């Protein structure tokens, strides 16, 4: 039975220590401070970025203890930590041992001038801590496009400066959003078909031995709250929904290994791989691009969540709701090919450009597989929910 369409209703104490540190010492200090300010045990993946610039040194067994200190400590310890040279050296080693957590753009951290004071280092680390965040793209009340971090108050964001490849930092200003946009304008949209066993079964398809790749037109991307337009020039009366986890790439990715694949990931967002099934099955020679690339057929949002905000690996509940009724419900742990496997496969002998989005497949419960089939109709509202990220909701309307 088709879901009923509901009616729309409308400062820390200043540092006195002016000790000047050299570049390698600075990296050691950064390691220790990062340990102290991170409040979860998984916030320690900074290893490969910091330890790589350190001279060889003995690994210390105290790393585990320092990791516990990091879990317990708060931001107030930043400025005292930067002066503790011996603890700093141990901190670098504990990062190497832990190998989980915050990802920072290392260029701004390890190539800095050597005459920086510990006070400046402390300031840098406060900004580095902001690397763990939710990144939205909005228009402000003047119409300007900005990036912001949601404050928890509806429509109010902390302004962010930066970019996907260099990272974002909080400017200290707040901005009120007039409209929430798709979190980025992707350079490319890659998509994976039949990546959940239960979805392959419901469509009668064979479970693939390799990821099934197709492309969507980047201009199909739209944001939260904007209508999905049903095609009318190339008419489709079989438009379907697909809840998907989307991966955003921070930088060009080529020949990634499984172990290093997540280093390319800027974050995750919700996606709806809207599909015109009649064009997918009968009218496109079994090629999927036409059926999935109509305008508005790739809603993304509501924001990008950085990897540090999510479990590692990101095993997340994923669901879709049509007019409030649950249609799909699964967990990304059920993927046939997980995110590292997809990045390793897609980047083999191939450059995936920075800013690309990868849709990772949908679970069972799509409209096409229901009896009778359920297609999107004007006036519907379709919502995608992903644990730890949020809800992407769009109305459905007639195309022009």
Q: How would you describe the overall organization of this protein?
A:
The relative contact order is 0.15. The protein contains eleven helices and 18 strands. By secondary structure, it is α+β, with helices and mostly antiparallel strands. α1 packs across α5 and α1 packs across α7. The strands form three sheets. Strands 1, 2, 3, 4, 5, 6, 7, 10, 11, 13 and 16 form an eleven-stranded mixed β-sheet that branches. A five-stranded mixed β-sheet has the order 8-18-17-14-15, with no helix packed on it. The protein has a two-stranded antiparallel sheet with strand order 9-12. The chain has three domains: 107 residues, no CATH class; 47 residues, SH3 type barrels (Roll), CATH 2.30.30; 210 residues, Fumarylacetoacetate hydrolase, domain 2, CATH 3.90.850.10.
Task: Summarize the helices and strands and which ones pair or pack.
Blueprint (H helix, E strand, L loop, with lengths): L22 H15 L9 H4 L12 H10 L5 H4 L3 H14 L8 H4 L7 H12 L4 E7 L4 E6 L5 E8 L3 E14 L8 E5 L3 H6 L9 E5 L4 E2 L5 E3 L8 E2 L2 E7 L15 E8 L2 E2 H5 L7 H4 L5 E8 L11 E6 L2 E7 L7 H8 L10 E3 L21 E6 L3 E9 L2
Parallel strand pairs: 5-16, 7-13, 8-18
Antiparallel strand pairs: 1-2, 1-4, 1-13, 2-3, 3-4, 5-6, 9-12, 10-11, 10-16, 11-13, 14-15, 14-17, 17-18
Helix pairs in contact: 1-3, 1-5, 1-7, 3-5
